[in-house]
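Render this sequence as a predicted structure.
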Amino acid sequence: MAELSNLNYPTTQNQALYFVTKWSNHFCSTFLPEWMVQADRVYHHHTNTSQTYEELFATLAIYYIAIFVWTTLVDLFISRPLTLLACKISGKDTKNSKKIAWFMTHALFNMLVVVCSWDEALEVFISPMTKGFEPPRWWGSHPGALFGAIAIGAFHVHHFAFYTVSLEDVIHHLINAGLVVVIGALCPWGRFTALSNWAMCGIPGGLNYFALWAYKFGWMSRMAQKNFNRFLNICLRYPIQALVTYLLFIVVVDGSTVPEMHWLTAVTVAIGATLHTLNSLYYGDQVVGNYHVEAEATRKASKSPPTDRKKDDDKKGE
């Protein structure tokens, strides 16, 4: 078996990214040495450098598997114990603790995506014309954007593997956590992916899943959680993703820093950006509409005569 070269760990000051990527490399060097030999040839090159499918697949798979393992460990040894403890403190029945723990796992993962993508997302936000298509590295000073894209796919596979999912979840995972993630990892997005990760699986989602977890224990009211989620969607999630698509369009029109790509790759990039933006618009509309329906129902219930409310309560108790 060929020997692995000495990998250069991230030179960024992002210590969280340094720790996670170093652990992922060590984990896969131990359990997947043959794949590591293939991936080693990719680590020191820009993503727009021509590589064999075997080498590229090995690199994708290494982070994919490592994040899947990470997520499983966090779910089993952090989220579920914390949720059981919260159940005891709040007096809540523990039979749904596994489902509630998923909210905590999701929130912690969103935090990881934000931290690992932080440097590149800020660069794109501040200087999109010069930094937007500047190639990130698989391994080097700025692997955050690609790492985040791959991690999102692995995280949602964990959801499939360990939890019951609805038809809407299946569609969402296959399109936005499957197809779009593959497009984000394989196409020359540069560092735009990092800012998109902030919006789609970063700050808004992380805060909302923390709020959902707190709501399940009565530490936040139902309407407070829905109002908070409404704010996150209309002020952060959809606007940031729409901004990413707009900046991508402006940089492509300018053309000075756009990498050379096949016409089919360019179409795929456009499809990926469109699907992500439509996703943010769809769920934003769902959240805002749901909030107003609930708010109206609450308002009407508060104006009902006490006798009517008493009758309703009696019927529910039957």
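Summary. The mean pLDDT is 82. DSSP finds twelve helices and no strands in the chain.
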